[in-house]
Please model this.
Amino acid sequence: MNRPAPVEIFYENMHFLITHNPTNATLNKFTEELRKYGMTTVVRVYKAPVEKEGIHGSCAGCACFD
Model:
C-alpha cells in the first residue's frame, strides 16, 4: 500500500511531523523517517497497531506519549 509522504509543520519554536501510522512490518521504515527529520517525541492520536516498546526498541532516545 502506498502511504502519503510525511508532512512537516513549523509553529513558533515547535516542529511537528505528521505521518501515517506504522505497523509492525513498517516499523523500521517509520523510525528511519523519525531520525531523518530529527524527531525525538512520538505522540499517538489513534489506537496504534504497534506497541510503544517496539518504537522505543527501534528509535533510541524517542519518547512516546498516548
About this structure: The longest helix spans residues 27-36. The two ends are 25 Å apart (CA to CA). Helices lie at 27-36, 52-58.
